[in-house]
Every structure is written in C-alpha cells, then in structure tokens.
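Re: your question from the hallway

Yes, I did run it. Sequences:
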Amino acid sequence: MPRSFLELFGVEPKAVAQAPGRVNLLGEHTDYNDGFVLPCAIPQKTRVEMALSPDRLDHFAAEDLGQRVDCEPVGPTPPGFAAYLHGCLTLVRQGGAVIPPVLMRVDSQVPMGSGLSSSAALEVAVLRALRELFHLDLDDVRVARLAQRAEIEYAGVNCGIMDQMAASLADEHHMLFLDTRTLERRLLPLPEGAELLVLDSGVPRRLEESGYNERRRECEEAARLLGVAALRDVGDPGELAALPEELAKRARHVVTENLRVLEAAQGVDARRFGELMNFSHRSLRDDFEVSIPALNLMVQLLQGEEEVFGARLTGAGFGGACVALVREGWGTQLGEWVLDRYREKGQLGTLLVPR
Ligand code: GLA
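Structure:
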C-alpha cells in the first residue's frame, strides 16, 4: 500500500495540486521548429502534495516508484524523479521567490516512457502546488514556461513547449490548437462523432537517450542552411530541394506536418482528420524516422479497422504510444480487439484511453 503524506512525513500536506498527461493528435516535432500543435489532455493525472520541511533539506517521495530523496536546496541535481522537483524549486527560487525547504509527495497515473508527457505533468503539478502554498504570482503560461526550463536545464531534454502548455492549459474535451512561436491558442472541439483511443505499444523510451536532441539539431541545421529563423518559416515543401537529402527529409516532415495541423484546425470532419493522422504517421516513419516496428505494427492494425478514422504514433516516437481517432462509442471495444491482434504478433500493449 502506498503511504500517505501523513505516514511519510508525520504532518498533513498544506497544498495539493495536479496536472494531466497529454496526447498529441497532430503536430509532432513541430514545436521546437516554432510550428503548430494540437494536443489534448488525457484523464490520467499526476498529483503533488506539499508542506514546509521541518529541517534545512527538501524531502521528496514518489511512492509509486518506491523512491525517497533528501536534497540540499542549493546543491547538485539529484537523479531520477527528484531532478524535476529540484529543477522546478530551483527555478522558482532563482526567480526571486523566497521558498523555504519543502516536503513533497508525488504520485502519478500518467505512464512513464509512453510519449504522454509524464514529465510535463509532474513539472506543472509541482509548480501549481508551489503557486498555491506560497501564493506565487504565476499565470498558466508562466507555469508552462518554467516547466519547460526545468525539463531542458534539469532533465537534459532540449524540448519544445507543447507538453508543458498542454499540461498547464489543455482539457480532456478539447484540442489545444497552439502556435508555439507566439503562444496564441484556441480550444477546439474534436471532430463530430469521434473519440480518442490511445494504446501503449509496451516499448518504452527515454527522451534523453533517444534521438530527440539529434532530430532537433538536424532541424536547426536545415533552417540555418535555408536562411530562415525556424522551419516554421518554410511554407512550401518545394523550397527544401536545396538541402542535403537527409536534412530535406527531416524538414519535409516538419513543413508538411505544420500544414496538416493548420488544415485540421480549420475544422475538418472526422474522416479527413483521420487521413491527416495517417499521413502524419507515414511522414514520421519515412521522413523523420522516429518510428519503430512495434509502433508501425500497432498503427497498421488500427488503420485496418473500419471504425478507425486514422491512427499514428504520438509523442516523440522511438517507442511509446499510438493515438487513433475512432467512431464515437467504439474506443474500448476497438482497443481491446486491436490489442488482441497485437498480442498474436508477440507484442504486449495496453489500453490507456478510454479508461
Ligand atoms: C516531446 C517533447 C515535445 C515535442 C514532442 C514531439 O514530447 O517534449 O516538446 O517536441 O516530443 O512532438
């Protein structure tokens, strides 16, 4: 049995906050290219409880991981989950807020390594708890920006802002259409008559060990060679012909993916939205090369189903989950059916949404 805050620390928490994971429907690997994204919150959340520490150390507990870390507020970054907590605390402290040592207990329903932004959910939940306990003047965008800095500076992933904006501003019932350059955003309804299905492939990945940072460097190099600030500034894939072949493929994914998000955000029907998702998967697989055989198999099984409008890998790739847009009311049944076919091929996946 996981121990409560009281059992762990001998006092009741003084602030409690939570934040959701997210699933991205379209707009993958576009956010660090100043592009467009379309994520949605998932029902799974991360919860953080907090109180003042009785001594001069920060004390962190993650019961579901069976980990406890005691940490100097001004000291080296601890490993594992504590890096995110220490990172958020340090950034807020550096920002000028007087934050004494704290006790923190975290628990999360957001699966780790599935491409559903468990780390952003954790960062945003920590910052929300800090905001509540210390009455910090932080709006939701500022929370997202601090959370992104924690990820970059303390977890070593040179990520964009999508995940943290989604954890801070998205809900389960809308898609968050976000321009990652200006942070202009709108909440949009899902296509009529459709719902989301999210399946974990059972193949985990760690972003900091994956090709993520390398892809980012490739995109920046392509933008530099094209003489634009970011690949967002290329509107026509025809402009990429001058690039070396591999960089042209990477850039083509980003440019076409932005076009897909912009089209979807205009309000297309479920059938067209699904088509755009299928194209997105193909582009991630063939041009951006971040898919793996298990994800391709799962997507192929999903795409073969009559009631599935479209399917693709979601998140950074290299493992993790797939998202499908399916006929309303069909999610659970389809998910179980596809997971059976997946198991027949020797793979073990899980149904994450609907819950
Ligand atoms: C990870 C990053 C995001 C984004 C996606 C890919 O989730 O944290 O910023 O780049 O990968 O779309």
